[in-house]
DNA sequence: ACATTAAGTGATT
DNA sequence: AATCACTTAATGT
């Protein structure tokens, strides 16, 4: 199994070796679920390439975006769940084709005490997510949908490394749990402000964005 | 040319 | 900010 260079700066050599021994390499195609709600969590994912969208589903099947997991990261939710072998509260879907390594949580327990670098890795991802989620909670609380939209688009272009967003207004609307009409109107305002250019199924972010 | 789907818009709550 | 009802524009067959 091939561990990317980048992990060398993250983990000590011995830990890398243990990852190689215990981990299993997987690929997941774009759109496929990696983890579904209520599913038991028995593995920790380490993302090598691609990005994973982590959402909550409400009763009507609408989704609320929690965060993205990018390469060289892991999922904070699985950390919190797996401690006590809990069920998943979230839905994780591959945004693009994803390569990842999964390691059994049993192994991870020993890593926590054995490898300082692992512990700080876990702590770091938890901390990052926690801050991110605080931000989104703020946004929800203050009902600023326009800011949520901007935040969403920024995040999107960051993970896809492109200023072209390939989503319909409809798709954006469901992800932000609102209606298409509202998104269309907000985007129109952004276009008038020369922040974006709108196409069919595509949005171009301008530098002022 | 026609049907389908995405996006734009005024009016209403 | 959401919904309705309708129009217009883009795209597929």
Average pLDDT figure: 85
Number of strands: 10
Which runs of at least 5 residues are low in confidence (pLDDT < 50)?
none
H and E order: HEEEEEHEEHHHEHHEE
Count the DSSP helices: 7
Estimate what percentage of residues fall within beta strands.
15-25%
**SS-based structural class?**
alpha+beta
Helix content: 40-55%
The gyration radius over C-alpha positions equals: 18 Å
Which descriptor suits the 3D outline?
elongated
Distance between termini?
Answer: 41 Å
The side-by-side strand order for the widest beta sheet comes to 2-6-4-5
Q: How would you sum up the major sheet?
A: 4 strands, antiparallel
Question: Can you put this structure into words, describing what you see?
Answer:
There is one protein chain. The protein has 209 residues and is of the alpha+beta class. 43% of the residues lie in helices and 23% in strands. It has 7 helices and 10 strands. The protein has helices at residues 13-22, 76-82, 105-114, 116-141, 145-160, 169-175, 180-192, and strands at 24-28, 33-35, 43-49, 52-57, 63-69, 91-94, 98-104, 164-165, 196-199, 202-205. A 4-stranded antiparallel sheet has the order 2-6-4-5. A 3-stranded antiparallel sheet has the order 1-7-3. A 3-stranded antiparallel sheet has the order 8-10-9. Strand 4 and strand 5 form a beta hairpin. Helix 6 (169-175) packs across helix 7. The relative contact order is 0.14. The structure holds a DNA duplex (13 and 13 nucleotides).
């Amino acid at each position: 199994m091939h561990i990317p260079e980048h992990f060398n700066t993250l983990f000590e050599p011995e830990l890398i070796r243990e990852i190689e021994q215990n981990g299993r390499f997987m690929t997941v195609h774009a759109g496929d679920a990696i983890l579904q709600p209520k599913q038991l969590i028995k593995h920790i994912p380490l993302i090598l390439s691609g990005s994973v969208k982590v959402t909550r589903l409400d009763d009507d099947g609408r989704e609320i975006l929690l965060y993205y997991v990018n390469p060289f990261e892991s999922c904070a939710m699985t950390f919190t769940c797996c401690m006590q072998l809990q069920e998943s509260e979230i839905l994780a879907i591959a945004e693009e084709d994803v390569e990842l390594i999964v390691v059994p949580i049993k192994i991870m327990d020993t890593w926590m005490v054995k490898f300082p670098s692992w512990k700080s890795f876990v702590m770091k991802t938890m901390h990052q997510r926690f801050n991110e989620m605080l931000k989104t909670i703020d946004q929800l609380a203050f009902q600023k949908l326009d800011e949520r939209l901007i935040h969403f688009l920024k995040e999107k272009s960051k993970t896809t490394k492109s200023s072209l967003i390939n989503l319909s207004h409809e798709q954006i609307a469901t992800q932000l749990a609102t209606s298409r009409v509202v998104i269309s109107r907000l985007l129109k305002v952004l276009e008038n402000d020369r922040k974006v250019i709108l196409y069919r199924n595509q949005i171009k972010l301008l530098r002022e964005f």
